[in-house]
Amino acid sequence: MIHPVIMAGGTGSRLWPMSRQLNPKQFLKLTSGPLSMLQATVARLEGMDAANPLLICNEEHRFLAAEQMRQSGHEDSRIILEPCGRNTAPAIALAALQLKETVAPDADDPLMLVLAADHLIKDVAAFQEGVKKAIPLAREGKLVTFGIVPNKPETGYGYIHRGSELGPDSFAVDRFVEKPDLATANAYLDSGEYLWNSGMFLFGAREYLKELEVHRPDILSACQAAIADTADDLHFTRVNAERFAECPSDSVDYAVMEKTDRAAVVSLDAGWSDIGSWSALWEVSDKDDHGNSLTGDVITHNTANTLVRADSRLVATVGVDNLVVIETNDALLVAHKDSVQDVKTVVEKIRNDGRHEHMNHREVYRPWGVYDSIDNGARYQVKRITVKPGAKLSVQMHHHRAEHWIVVSGTARVTNGDKTYLVTENQSTYIPVGQVHSLENPGVINLELIEVQSGSYLGEDDIVRYEDRYGRK
Question: Residue 331 is part of which domain span?
């Protein structure tokens, strides 16, 4: 049995405005119909002899990750929460330490299949066959990476120069190569000896930790200290934040793979892409006869080679070529496909200007459901709130705002001061400023309500929580 470890960190700022800091690309439905990229990563493990995936994600994404794993049928999967980002070498170390102790403390070395949550793989059968070819190498103590057979002179990826043959489509790693210029990339492609570095791996947990101890003992010791003091909350594992913050930041490539003499590579031709930009998404998307990839309510005229995504309204294009047009309910991006790498510069400007469009969408997910901020003004805000069956918001109080709740469908159990009562469809209730209150859905269908907030300050940080079943007190 292999143990999938899915790394779901990162913010994906190059895919703004769809990807936001609190809802990054791994949780978006970009390439796989009804599945997010994380869910598609989990789905391609089906049919393999694999344990429940172990997920690693940022603390602020925990409920979004847990809900998507629940929807994928893996609600029992453990989720390690990183209190801060420290790149892939420490993240994998946390997973290896966890597996070593919980799966096989005194037995065989558990094999870790390390995957990124935001990669596209079109040919799942080829991917699974590649993993099977890597298993014997990993059992021999090799640290196996998966190299993608290149189909163009890509300058945005690192490369692997393959060495001596070890088995079917399997080679020793001669060397890792940084992102090349175009002439060098063409030479690599013509030689047939180079593969793209995918950032996917298969190795034993103990073998990885041994190599980390040799090459980056400072990372290993910091991770050991962090995971020696954990707190389990629901399906989450929280490591010691202070100890982990002291860990150096480094990628697994730099920390281990480029230094070890036990690196191997399995070549993989499975329709892989890291979807690192809007132009990369256009390349792998289905297109019409004019080279357009269109999603949502879109009308085109005299338009070619263009990516258009419309989330909330009609988008029309006339007489354009080679563009990216991305519409969400609070932002619009129009960019030339050759300049999409600069989208991150726009995100930085939004952040530096004190705006919020880089942080989250208008629709915000919570462990109890979701809310959509549908209107706001100087002293009011209107939200549409959906509470899942059996879910309950925290017992809380606001210093600066009052709230008026109107139930649209379902039934609400409301605690308002020392009173608790039911509010049903077409009924409403009022929560005064400073009143301790809570909202619960006791029914078996979603509770839908409209919340009208009014007051001098309407920020989400004006919440004093007294009780919370989700550990947010």
Answer: 278-353
